C-alpha cells in the first residue's frame, strides 16, 4: 500500500460488503462494520475510529459513513468512495435484512432503532447523507468518487480511481438476491443428482 487510506462512506446495503471484498482483492486491510452493538457508540466512536485507523487501510459500513469529515481532516490524501443505490430498493433491503431489529448504531445514525415503521425517517437520513457528502467533496475528483454497483460500476471505475491494475477476477458481488438464488439452485441440482433412486 502507498500509505493512503480508503474510506467507504456509503450507507450499509449500498454494496459496502462487495466493495470491501474488492478492496481486499486489491491488497487492502479492510475493517467494518465496527461498534454496531456498543450501547455508548456515540460517545466511543471517535476513539474507536482513530484506533482502528492506525491498524487498517480501508474502512467500510458503519460507523465510517458518519465520520467522513473527521477522517478527511485527520488523514489528508485519503480516498473516499460513496456507494449509491436507489432509495426505494435501499429501504426494501433495510427492511428485509434488519426488520424490527434495533441496534445502538442505527439508533444513533437514524434517531430510531429499526427500519420497520420508520421508513420515511430512514430514507430522509439516507438521502441527506448523500447530498452532504457530494457537497463536501465537490471539485475534489482526486479524493472522491461515487460507485453504483447496481448500475454496472465495478473494477474499471474503482481501479482507475485508486491507481490500481484491474485484477483478472470477477468483481465480487456480495449479498445479492440473484446470487443467493443461483446458489440455492446449484445445491438443489446437486441434491437431485445425489439422491438415491426409489426402491422397488
From TrEMBL:
It holds the Pfam family Sulfotransfer_4. Signal peptide: none annotated. InterPro entries: P-loop_NTPase, Sulfotransfer_4. PANTHER family: P-LOOP CONTAINING NUCLEOSIDE TRIPHOSPHATE HYDROLASE PROTEIN, P-LOOP CONTAINING NUCLEOTIDE TRIPHOSPHATE HYDROLASE. This is Sulfotransferase family protein. It comes from Thalassoglobus neptunius. The lineage of its organism: Bacteria, Pseudomonadati, Planctomycetota, Planctomycetia, Planctomycetales.
